[in-house]
Design a protein that fits this description.
heterodimer, A: 482 residues, mainly alpha, two-stranded antiparallel sheet, 76% helix, B: 489 residues, 2 strands
Chain lengths: 482, 489
Amino acid sequence: MDTPAFHPAMILAILPEIGLIILAGLVLLADLLFHRKKDRDLGLLTFGGLLAVAGVTLVYSRPDMVPVTVFGGALRQDWATFVFRMIFLVGAAISVLFTMDTDRRIRSGAFYLLVIIATLGMSLMAAAADLITLYLAIETTSIPLYVLSGSLVKDQKSTEAGVKYMLFGAFTSAIMLYGFSLLYGFTGTTNLYELKGLLESGQISTVALVAVAMLVLAGFGFKISAVPFHFWAPDVYEGAPTPVAGYLSTASKAAGFAVLLRFLNVVFPDLYPAWLLVALLSVATMIIGNVLALTQKNIKRLLAYSSIAQAGYMLIGVAAATELGNTAAIFYLISYLVTNLAAFGIIVVVGWSVGSDEIAAYAGLSRRSPGLALALLVALLSLGGVPPFAGFIGKLFVFAAAVQADMIWLAIIGIINSVVALYYYLVVLKVVWLNRSDDEEVKLPVTRPWRLAVVVCVAGMLLLGTIFAPWYQWALQAATAF
Amino acid sequence: MNFPILTLTIFIPLVAGLLILFYPAEKKTWPRITALAAAVITFLLTILVYARYDVAAGGYQFIEQIPWMPFWDISYHVGVDGISTPLLLMAGVVLFCGTAVSWNVEDRPREFFSFLMFLGTSVLGVFASLDLFQLFFFFELAIFPKYLMIVIWGYPKTREYGSMKLTLYLFVGSVFALVGVLALVFLSGANTFDLLKLEQFDFTTAFQQTWFPFVFFGFAVLAAIFPAHSWAPDGHVAAPTAVSMMLAGVEMKVGAFAALRVGIMLLPEGAHFWAPLVLVLATINVVYGALIALVQTDFKYVIGFSSVSHMGLVMIGFATLSKEGLLGSGLQMFSHGIMTALFFSVVGMVYDRAHTRDIARLGGLFQKMPAAAVAFIVAGLVSMGMPGFSGFIAEFPIFMGAWKAAPIVAIIAVLGVIITAGYILLVVRRVFFGELNPDLAHVGDVSLLDKVSMAVLVVMMIALGVFPSLMYPMVQSGVNYILALVGGA
């Protein structure tokens, strides 16, 4: 491979990554230099930095309609890359706001640094157009996340979460890597876009390709917590610091979908069994996630299973394998980002001040903090798919995609699942609004960054749920860019 | 017409509801005043729409359209015709009366009135929708106010069960309707959500027959069609008074209206194909609902089951697909909405004062609350279909239509009316007449606001009964439009 000549587009294409690295350096430096620093200052630095990176990306790193491939085909700068990068940056920024000043056990310098590095990895995942870059990006994302999950070193559940997450991650990435190696063996190239042509030549048997697809899907399935690669999710969400759980369930999942969408659409566009496999994954994910969520008593576990189920709905869009399907999945991810982050944000503050994540601890919340209860109402109803919130539009789009792709059975399974899901969301709301508790007079303390983050999320849910056309346009441009 | 009257009608409650949420919790009177003011303005606007509707011209009027998502041909598109104008008025009056009789809600009034206003926006929005997406959007908007209002302010013994049952039943119904709606748009190749364009779209016969049940029965769950009726009595009984009024009075019509608008008007051949089944189910509604109402010992359950019975008549009218039947259904939707709202408001007043709804422990209440008793009797007469009241002019055409379509249905359904007379008279005698139970000696009379709201409802029912021409031609124009789509006389 010849060394590519330098071109300004190369810098522009990785502008967000450059920004993130600089930010990581700044945070590291600030953490070292200012010893008696306050957690909030580092948090604000991280938050401001992430926003700045997002702003710079928005202005200077906006892709043209024609995708640009840089660094010898390692990275690809297109609308999909751009939209997913924005998702990660916003998700990371909101998670940072939720972390600030809430949990004293979190060592802030290292924590924010790892969040930035993980975001960097995700950003590369969205851009990767080569098997090797893809693998490196996935690991760059995963390793900081393992550490983050286990970052409460004195909490057994947290360390257990970290170890469990790492073991599962290592296991599934090994399987995925095996799939990658087969692909390389079959074709002699690691470039996704070259693979496509070579695989279509018809010299490789479909059975082998389906086997490869299954191996690779194991790796991606782990990232998006699809059944049967979901076992880590409830334990990790429960044990990890709550803001990390929120980040895992949104940005990290979105990163998984970014690579899943690109990989399937680029490498296996016409391999019907692979898409059927995705549809089956979707069905299993929805059903297992929702059914197991029904019996949960701990809100973090409930949201873990709910987020498994949500991945199932998104997979409906992927499985539809149409332009509308991909668009719907991406739109769903955007709406899910603000929705689930809001839900986890509320858990952060309740868990922090009440000291419990049991659903029973939410009794009387609507009397203690009516505003907080309303925010939780909006978040859970949006997860349940009720208008006028973002989740409704997201569900409508994925079901529409299934119907349009003539997969009505999939739409009906999804819809029945959303009824089951509504039940357990309503049960939580019932506890919040109806049940009484002894300390109803005590207001929950919320910090200003936290309030800002929740307001942004709620506004986002309302905005996506009512004025959805522009966001749909974004998602559509991303979906057609692969 | 440039004045956005329908938009104002729909969104004034929403704006009021949002505003109320931002009031400080200590100010318990502010939410009430704001909500009542918003409800009065909405009511007046619906009267204005009703008065300004040009019956001679017919069709959809007061149309406003703003692109919402051009890519899928979704727009914010409102307008009313001869069927929806009376329903809009009905929703306006019930929202007003529901707000008025809830004046004394003490527990978290801010959330109560806010959610009530959201519910108002939801129903008004459905009635005025000329876009399928928008219709569904408003339809589903009612989910959380309904659930939360029942679970928070409902009858303590059954509220958890009743609210969850209602929500899940209705959600199941609406998701099936959603599949149908999506199929209508994407599978048929129509690729538009505009109802006016969909009305003109040529769906194949096979398509119509396949998808009619999804949309019709999906929406009709909210109209409590048998066998998906059992959420209704449980939900109505568990709900606080204002929500019972909105649910039984307006929401059930929302279901029937959506089933008509989307099911029958868009898929007429499907409607012809499935009409016999609808007739049978609706007839079961009428008779079965009335029979169960007859044996209830709980005052509120009597009314709850009577709604199931009366909604059956609406469905029978639909299923005849004839001029008389549809006309009767249109009038019945209005008349029943007003009547049931009045019933539930009186039941609520009795319960608030007597603290029991057990019919055996009530009695002689005419002495204590004469105005409420008179109002209940008027509603009872409407319910029995007495000439001179709105019930008669609504039910008579339905039976005419049913007789033409299938005489046996008319004969069986008339039984329902006779049973209705039975349970109404029984309950009136046991609750309001006879010996006053000594436990009820302390019971006081109803408040002025209660009287005002009952008077408004009573006047409407009598006015329509005595002067059917106030509404008859309007509904007729709406029916003519439907018949042009459905075919037939």
